[in-house]
Amino acid sequence: MANGEKEKRGDERTAELKQLGDRIKSLRIKAGYSNYEYFAYKHEIPRSQYGRYERGEDLRYSSLKKIVRAFGISMEEFFSEGFD
């Protein structure tokens, strides 16, 4: 695989993680939590870890499921907005 292809994949992955982070943040704000730390604390998610998710850093599927459950929605609902 050429370096250009690797860079393109890396850029795509970064963009996808940013989309996940933006969606998580928008749902938190919509739920009435202006502070991500309070939301994380309230739902027993490590605050620093949750902050990384909102910034679009890598997260595991199991962590995403826990966050989606904290919002009280399905995975289908989570991905219904903000994704191509």
What does this 3D model show about the protein?
It is built from five helices and no strands. The chain has a single domain, classed as 434 Repressor (Amino-terminal Domain), CATH 1.10.260.40. The protein has 84 residues and is an all-alpha fold. The chain is elongated and about 45 Å long. It has helices spanning 3-30, 36-42, 47-54, 61-71, 75-78.
From the structure above, extract its key features:
elongated, 434 Repressor (Amino-terminal Domain), 5 helices, 84 residues, mainly alpha, 0% strand
Summarize the structure.
This protein is mostly helical and about 80 residues long. The chain contains five helices and no strands. Helix 2 crosses helix 3.
What is the 3D shape?
Answer: elongated
CATH superfamily, called what? lambda repressor-like DNA-binding domains
Stated plainly, the CATH topology is called 434 Repressor (Amino-terminal Domain)
Low-confidence stretches: none
Integer count of domains: 1
In CATH, what is the class?
Answer: Mainly Alpha
Give the tally of β-strands.
0
| Major β-sheet annotation | none
Radius of gyration: 14 Å
